Amino acid sequence: MSTITTDKTYRIMRDNCQAMLIDVQEKLTPHIYRHQEIIQKTVTLLQGLQALDIPIMHNEQYKKGLGETVPEIMAVLGNTKGQQFEKVSFSVCDDDEAWNYLAQQNRNAVLLFGVETHVCVMQTALDLLDNGMQPIIIADATGSRNAYDRRQAIRRMRRAGAVITTTEAILFELCRSSKDPAFKTISNLVK
Fold first, then answer.
1. pLDDT at 32
2. For the residues of 76-144, what is the DSSP string, one character each?
3. What radius of gyration do the chain's Cα atoms show?
4. Residue 3 — very low, low, confident or very high, per pLDDT cuts 50/70/90?
5. If we measure between CA atoms, which residue out of 140, 147, 191, 143 comes closest to residue 170?
6. Is 56 helix (H, G, I), strand (E, B) or coil?
7. Which pLDDT belongs to residue 83?
8. What is the rounded CA–CA span in Å between residue 123 and residue 112?
């Protein structure tokens, strides 16, 4: 097979990847369309990312008003080396402390998941693009109160240049091979 070199890579590589959980909080999440499925996918995704040793950044919007991250997810996050940030801006990138942490990881591909897709997830994705980073939206682990808002946000992010994928697809892409030590864990998670 011959190789053609381009400036753009389409594969998402583990050593150039970090993850960002956005605002899956107690007072907001119950109002999200299909929220139980989103929580389940998020738990699976986080466990897989931990097995792959991907840095995870955990964000919460105005905790006084929206509460803590839901317990199912906090139970998984307790095992992670990630960093937690509280924010009041919709885009994570507008918070200086969070942005500095993100930039210091030196990982250009950022997996985005959480709520709401059409507000905080989308604004963060657009800011990442504006700053030369590649947002990867984990569609089955994102949600909005209204399904139509979510669909339109996914469409806009795709058109802007974000990559859209799913929990299972990204975990296997980052794993790359059944010989990877994380493969068995990931296979069991997605069953």
1. 97
2. HHTT---EEEEESSSSGGGSHHHHHHHHHT---EEEEEEE-IIIIIHHHHHHHHHTT-EEEEEEEEEE-
3. 16
4. low
5. 140
6. strand
7. 87
8. 11
How confident is the model over 178-189, as pLDDT tens digits? 999 999 999 999
Domain chopping of the chain, boundaries: 14-189
Tell me which DSSP letter residue 165 carries. Answer: E
CATH superfamily of 14-189: Isochorismatase-like (3.40.50.850)
pLDDT digits (tens, 9 = 90+) for 44-76: 999 999 999 999 999 999 999 999 999 999 999
- Among left, alpha and beta (phi > 0; psi -120 to 50; other), residue 131 is alpha
What is the distance between the alpha carbons of residues 30 and 38, in angstroms, rounded to a whole number? 11
The mean of the pLDDT values for the chain is 93
- Going 174 to 177 to 182 to 185, the CA torsion angle's sign is positive
Which residues, other chains included, contact 135 with Cβ-Cβ below 8 Å and sequence gap of 6+?
110, 112, 124, 125, 128, 129, 157, 162, 163
Backbone angles phi, psi at 110, to 5 degrees: -125, 115
**3-state class (DSSP) for residue 20:** strand
Q: How confident is the model at residue 88 (pLDDT cuts 50, 70, 90)?
A: very high
What is d(CA 55, CA 141) in angstroms, rounded to the nearest whole number?
A: 17
What percent of the chain is modeled with pLDDT above 90? 90
